[in-house]
From TrEMBL:
Family matches, as Pfam families: Thioredoxin_4
Regions that span the bilayer: 15-35
Keywords carried by this UniProt record: Disulfide bond, Membrane, Oxidoreductase, Redox-active center, Signal, Transmembrane, Transmembrane helix
Family note: Belongs to the thioredoxin family. DsbA subfamily.
UniProt xrefs under InterPro entries: Thioredoxin-like_fold, Thioredoxin-like_sf
Domain Thioredoxin-like fold: residue ranges: 69-206
Full protein name: Thioredoxin-like fold domain-containing protein
Organism name: Amycolatopsis coloradensis
Protein origin, superkingdom: Bacteria
A Gene Ontology molecular function term of the record: oxidoreductase activity
């Protein structure tokens, strides 16, 4: 009888241990789901911070179709920058080289042509942020505020795979950088440039001169920088090489 009671007592302990383990595991899973959902929706209701910027006086920005140029009229050198507002490597590019680019634009030696593309349009949740933000940036260019808008979207970039900023948030950013024309909000809400942007992306992504080998054969990726029709290798001194 004593032996039987000992076995029964051991079984009860095992049951208690297993039950506790299951409860702990369930709590971890639930906590993980809650954390994941909270992280995914971290942009919900957020105000995108307007940036003071480092663009100097005399820098002119102009929209030409779906390309926005920025620089001073006397600039002799130019680069084309192909990027996606959701691309994390594009943000790294801005963090690492943005200051150098701003300096050369401000002193009148460089003009930049920005091509904002929806390469990662399916990689936000819900899909569509890359296209929405590119369209909004062109609308901001119409109001002369592309550079401020561009810098703010990279500074406050949403996580890839998570919720992007919605159209109302993009409109609010425009207002915060000084856009007062009601046509700006209309352009965002109607997606006025979306088809042009998608057409440009198809053309750009298949352009042989913009292909690079990322380890799996030639393909297009963001960020890509080109000068004189040639892709620029983004090493430490690439900008000085472009400027000659």
């Amino acid at each position: 009888m004593a032996q039987a009671r000992g076995v029964a007592g051991g079984d009860k302990k095992k049951v208690v241990v297993i039950t506790v383990a299951v409860i702990v595991l369930a709590a971890l899973v639930i906590g993980g789901v809650i954390w994941s959902t909270s992280s995914k929706d971290s942009t919900d209701g957020k105000v995108i911070a307007a940036q003071s910027g480092t663009w100097g006086p005399g820098v002119v920005e102009k929209r030409d179709g779906v390309v926005v140029s920025a620089g001073k009229p006397e600039a002799k050198k130019s680069i084309d920058v192909y990027a996606d507002f959701l691309c994390p490597v594009c943000k790294q590019f801005e963090e690492k080289f943005g200051g150098q680019i701003h300096e050369q634009v401000n002193n009148g030696t460089l003009q930049v042509r920005y091509h904002m593309l929806p390469m990662l349009n399916q990689r936000s949740d819900p899909p569509g942020y890359s296209l929405d933000s590119a369209n909004a940036a062109l609308a901001a260019a119409d109001a002369g505020k592309f550079l401020a808008f561009h810098d703010a979207l990279f500074k406050d970039q949403p996580d890839e795979g998570a919720r992007g900023f919605d159209k109302a948030q993009l409109i609010k950013l425009g207002q915060d950088v000084g856009i007062t024309d009601p046509a700006f909000a209309t352009s965002i809400n109607t997606g006025v440039y979306e088809q042009q942007i998608q057409d440009e992306y198809k053309k750009t992504s298949t352009d042989p001169s913009l292909q690079q080998d990322f380890g799996r054969g030639p393909s297009f990726g963001t960020p890509t920088v080109a000068s004189n029709g040639q892709v620029v290798k983004l090493d430490e001194g690439w900008l000085q090489k472009v400027l000659g």
